[in-house]
Write a structure and sequence with these properties.
Length: 86
Amino acid sequence: MKAWIISLVCGVAAGVIYALLDVHSPAPPVVALLGLFGMLVGEQLIPVGRRLLSREPLTLAWFRHECVPKISGTAPPAPAKESRDA
């Protein structure tokens, strides 16, 4: 949560500076957000490529645990507990 607040404050500060200098944002908000999303996804291509080059399996469980938290900013999912039937 702390990183979100710092990010928001920095964004507001940048907006104030842009307004004081009478400069418009370099990109429309949607385009800027898509660009940021593309950067996050692109960063995950290297771990995926390394995994493929080392011939390790590329599973959905690995992707959800390793890549999705870095793209979405959420905590990795908890490991699934095995249920034992007695």
